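Sync notes, pocket subgroup
Present: LS, DG
LS reminded everyone that the earlier model was apo-only. Rerun requested with 2'-deoxyguanosine-5'-diphosphate included. Inputs:
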Amino acid sequence: MNRKEALAIVKEQLNEARYTHTVGVMETAIKLAEKYGEDVKKAELAAIFHDYAKFRPKDEMKEIIIEQNMSKDLLEHHHSLWHAPVGAYLVQKEVGIKDEAVLRAIEYHTYGRPNMTMLEKIVYVADYIEPGRSFPGVEEVRQSAENSLDEALFLCLRNTIVFLIGRKQPIYPMTINTYNSVVQGGG
Ligand code: DGI
Ligand code: FE
Ligand code: FE
Ligand code: FE
């Protein structure tokens, strides 16, 4: 599957704004992969499909989480987290993507995991810093990604956790586990 075919498939699943975001993540992930010596094609593919399940109905995602024996604690947390693991499952099933490294980068793009692979870090950080993002502090993360992927990853996690605390939102335990791993030097 080439880039054009992949983009055409994902476009059907998304609205205009989310598609534009996806192209931004793709371009950013490619640049990070080139800079840090990761497989550019894998980064491109994972980025293109990272939000594949973003607009699936809540009930469908819930059913998949239960049927596929995904972590039950997902259901106790906000449904905006669900599209990441559900997306990894659906791109395998519906699109036929088999590359485990790519699937895991999609699965962990929202909350990470301890000891992330470089590909996972690239998709996670690219999702946060793509040119269409305007979070407070995003410019600092963009600058940081020029020098250190791990420092950029730390800033993404810090900002996300601080943002959630500021809004009195619960934090998904895996987000905390990822943060701990990053500050303990495990990435
Ligand atoms: O799908 P995107 O909007 O491109 O971004 P994303 O997949 O990184 O995040 C989806 C949403 O999940 C976003 O609103 C931030 C939120 N989020 C990320 N980590 C956590 C979280 N929400 C909660 N409640 N807890 C988390 O740990
Ligand atoms: Fe997402
Ligand atoms: Fe993200
Ligand atoms: Fe995204």
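DG: The mean pLDDT is 97.
LS: The pocket of fe (iii) ion (ligand 2) is lined by residues 50-51, 83-84, 109-110 (CB under 6 Å).
Action: DG to write up.
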